[in-house]
Write a structure and sequence with these properties.
Distance between the termini: 35 Å
Number of strands: 10
Strand order of the largest sheet: 5-4-3-6-7-9-8-10
Strand content: 25-35%
Largest sheet: 8 strands, mixed
Radius of gyration: 17 Å
Number of helices: 7
């Protein structure tokens, strides 16, 4: 069934998304645009969904290789088809599997994840959506453990969570020897509550740099900071 599936057109690629899995969200796009890329060669995208973050990072870094891991078979197939028919097919490899039992042949210098975050929540009617939005399968501690095991000594990781779940992740991450170095609040508009938080971290403990990014301004237009980040991707930003 693909009644609710649609195509999201970016400047350099397009992605089929939704049914199976969740549709592409604004905050996920912002997260992909925000992730800084330096000397990164091999990345792991945990819970790739339709492959959004993998594609956004490959656009930034033509030499980057991304292993895109997805636990749900139908969603993994969707990600595979998106990669196969997209401009970054030689950079993205899609794997169907569970990060809690999956081990790569080498450590990664970048690990990224837009993880499930609803804990103790009513079950979603669609199984692929349930796997995508519920933390029952991948808890903050599960994710921290996976990053601890798979991250290279000098590598970095990036995680997107709502504030409460980010707090849970930070507590368990420090116990596992991985630390937050930069934290950005995503705020829908001035005066609104924080919607999500984007974290950039590593195995090195340092002073935490904090920032805020607004999606829209007081007039309801896209905020200049948001436009600047998404300009390379969104068709609406020339």
């Amino acid at each position: 069934m693909a009644e609710s599936r649609s195509i999201f057109q970016f400047k350099q690629f397009q992605l089929a998304h939704g049914n199976p899995g969740l549709k592409i969200s604004t905050e996920a796009c912002l997260f992909g645009a925000w992730i800084p890329l330096g000397n990164v060669h091999h990345a792991l995208d945990i819970g790739t969904g339709c492959g959004l973050l993998a594609h956004m990072l490959c656009q930034k870094a033509p030499g980057l290789q991304v292993d895109a891991l997805e636990i749900h078979p139908d969603v993994a197939e969707l990600a595979h088809q998106n990669a196969k028919h997209g401009p970054f097919k030689v950079q993205i490899k899609v794997f169907q599997g569970d990060i809690k039992t999956w081990t790569a042949s080498q450590a990664y210098d970048l690990i990224l994840c837009n993880p499930p975050f609803f804990t103790n929540h009513l079950a979603a009617s669609d199984s692929s959506k349930q796997a995508a939005i519920h933390a029952d399968h991948l808890s903050p501690d599960d994710l921290a453990q996976a990053i601890q095991h798979q991250l290279a000594d000098s590598g970095n990781f990036a995680v997107l969570y709502p504030p409460y779940e980010m707090g849970l992740f930070l507590q368990t991450a420090e116990k596992r020897g991985i630390f937050a170095n930069r934290l950005a609040d995503i705020i829908p508009k001035p005066g609104a509550k924080v919607l999500r938080q984007m974290l950039w971290g590593s195995r090195q403990k340092s002073e935490l740099l904090k920032e805020q990014i607004h999606i829209r301004d007081e007039q309801g237009d896209y905020h200049p900071d948001f436009q600047e980040l998404l300009k390379p991707y969104y068709l609406i930003f020339p």
